[in-house]
Design a protein that fits this description.
There is one protein chain. The two termini are about 20 Å apart. The longest helix has 25 residues. The chain has six helices and two strands; from the N terminus they run αααααββα. Strand 1 and strand 2 form a beta hairpin. The protein has a single domain, classed as Up-down Bundle (Four Helix Bundle (Hemerythrin (Met), subunit A)). It is mainly alpha-helical and about 160 residues long. This is Damage-inducible protein DinB. Keywords: Metal-binding. Belongs to the DinB family. GO terms for molecular function: metal ion binding. Pfam families: DinB.
Length: about 160
């Protein structure tokens, strides 16, 4: 399982890096434009992916590691509100999170251990591996939304493709 999760985490890092190269070419108004998606805009969707990675993987799932990683800077950034950060700061946070997620996969001792994960109104009892797969795939899903928005805007993009790593 570690090998599969490491591959997925490295793929997310690769795809995020390539996505950022495209997003860095856009104007702030293009990033913030309301395009009618659930998280409103490209930047809103980007922030949502980052929030989930910091809160769930690097927050809750990190606490299941025998020696949890130091994610205080990312947790502090999340607590202060990512919507208030500059795009440059968000890029830095995204890259830090991607490196730490790969380290977190390496630090988990038992991916089959079942833990409870609760959100307001819903709880899950799943293996640590399933939580990892769920959140790592969550990023893939929302990067696909960003790619579709870029397609509609006629912005060339191709930041997916695990085989291209």
């Amino acid at each position: 399982m570690r090998e599969i999760l490491t591959l997925q985490a490295r793929y997310n890092q690769f795809a995020n890096d390539n996505m950022l190269k495209v997003l860095e070419t856009l104007s702030p108004s293009d990033l913030q434009k309301d395009v009618g998606v659930y998280y409103t805009s490209i930047i809103g969707t980007f922030i949502h992916i980052l929030e989930a990675d910091i809160a769930i993987l690097l927050g809750i799932i990190n606490s299941y590691a025998p020696n949890p990683l130091d994610t205080k800077a990312l947790q502090d950034a999340l607590a202060s509100g990512l919507q208030n950060k500059s795009f440059e700061s968000l890029i830095t946070l995204r890259r830090q999170a991607d490196r730490l997620i790969i380290d977190l996969v390496d630090s988990i001792a038992d991916f089959n251990a079942v833990r409870e994960l609760s959100f307001p109104g819903i709880s899950f009892k799943k293996s640590i591996a399933q939580y990892f797969l769920s959140i790592l795939n969550h990023g893939t899903h929302h990067r696909g939304q960003i790619a579709a928005i870029l397609d509609i805007m006629n912005v060339p993009n191709d930041f997916a493709g695990m085989l291209g790593m």
